[in-house]
Amino acid sequence: MKNLKKELQNRKTKHLYRTRRITDGPQQPEMIIDGKPVTSFCSNDYLGLANHPDVIQAFIEGVKKYGAGSGAAHLVNGHSKAHHALEEELAEFTGYPRALLFSTGYMANLGVAQALVGKGDTVLEDRLNHASLIDGGLLSGARLMRYMHNDVNDLEKKLVSRTNGGKLVMTDGVFSMDGDIADLANLASTCENNDALLMVDDAHGFGVLGESGGGTLEYSDVSIKDVPIYMATLGKAIGTSGAFVAGSEELIETLIQQARTYIYTTATPPALAEATRKVINNEPELRQQLHSNIQYFRDCCKQQNIKLSDSKTPIQPVIIGDDESVVRLSNTLFDQGILVTAIRPPTVPAGTSRLRITLSAKHSHHHIDKLIEIL
C-alpha cells in the first residue's frame, strides 16, 4: 500500500495538488467563493440556466409533487412519470427513437462500454477523450486503443488492424480541455467503412452548438444514422444534473438490461427531471448571447496579443506550459477577483498546463473586459 502522506506531499511539491473552493450562493458569473466576491470564468453553466427562475420554480413544484428523492433504482420503483416524460422529450429533441437517463455522464460512459463490448472486442478512442470515456474502455474488458487527436487516418489504420471481434469508437464531440470539435463527418464514414459502432459524448456541445442547440451532430450536419450512440450531460448547458444516452430501441433496451451503472444505482430525484424538462428545446436567445460573448472575448484577446487555441466553443484555454506558473497565475487572478481554474496533468498532457477559461451567456462585456485587463 502507498505511503499516503508521502504521496500527497509529492503532489504538492510538483504543483499538482488539488484543493476545493467553497461557494456561497447560486451558480452565476458573480459569486462569493471562499468568502471573497469574484467573477467566475470556469463554470460549465454555459447558458446560465442553473439559477434561472423558471428552472428553480419547476424544481420546487417537482419536489412538492414527488418529494426530495426517488427512493430506488429505475428498475425497482424509482422510475417516475417525470423521468419517463423527460426521456421521451429528449428522444424527440435529438431525433433518436429512445433515450435513457443516467445519474451522471461518467456513469453513462462506463455503462455503455461495459454493456456493449468485452473480451475479444476493441474500443478505439481519441487521445484527448474525457477520463470517463477512457475509463469506460479500460473497465469494459475489451482491448483499448487510442488514436492521435482528431486524426481519422490514424483511427482507420487501427480499425483495419483489428480483424476479430466487435469495434466501438468513442469520442468527445467537444473536447473539454481544448474546446475543439471532433471531425464527426469523417469519423462516421470511417466507422461505417470499417464495421465499427460510433459513440459521441456531447457533454460540452449539447445545448451550445447548432441552431437549435442540437450539439455537434447538428453543427456538423451529421445524421443520427451516422452516430448510433449519442450521450450528453444535463449539468452543463442545460443547467441541472445527470445525463442521457440516445439511440435505437435495441440499444436502449440493451442498456436497461446490461448497463451496471444504470441497473445498480438510485435514480436521480424526479424533481430534477421536472426542472430539466423546463429547458429542453428552449432559450435560443441565451445561445445567441453565448456565441456573441465568445466572439467578443476572442476579438479582445486578439487585440491584446493573448494567444488562444482555435475554439468556437465556450471553452477558451490559455496554454501556459509549466505547472507552477499556471497555479501562480490562477491564484493571482483570484486575488484580483477573477476565478479561472488551473488545469494540470493528468487532466492534460505534461507541458500543456493551462488556464481553462469558460464563457457564459450571462457574462457581460464588463466582466470580459475585466478578465482581459488582468490577463
List key phrases describing it.
375 residues; alpha/beta; Aspartate Aminotransferase, domain 1; Aspartate Aminotransferase, domain 2; 41% helix; globular
Quick take:
This protein is α/β, with parallel strands linked by helices.
Detailed description of the structure:
By secondary structure, the protein is an alpha/beta fold. The chain has 2 domains: 16-49 and 284-374, Aspartate Aminotransferase, domain 1 (Alpha-Beta Complex), CATH 3.90.1150.10; 53-277, Type I PLP-dependent aspartate aminotransferase-like (Major domain) (Aspartate Aminotransferase, domain 2, 3-Layer(aba) Sandwich), CATH 3.40.640. The chain has helices at residues 4-13, 53-66, 74-78, 81-94, 105-116, 131-139, 152-161, 184-193, 216-220, 249-258, 260-263, 270-277, 284-303, 323-335, 365-374; strands spanning 30-33, 36-40, 98-102, 122-126, 143-147, 167-172, 197-201, 229-233, 243-247, 315-321, 338-339, 341-343, 353-358. The chain has a 7-stranded mixed sheet, with helices on both faces. The chain has a 3-stranded mixed sheet with strand order 1-2-11, with helices on both faces. The chain has a 3-stranded antiparallel sheet with strand order 10-13-12, covered by helices on one side. Helix 2 (53-66) packs antiparallel against helix 12 (270-277), helix 4 (81-94) runs parallel beside helix 12 and helix 7 (152-161) packs parallel to helix 8. The protein starts with a helix and ends with a helix. 48% of the residues are buried. The mean pLDDT is 96.
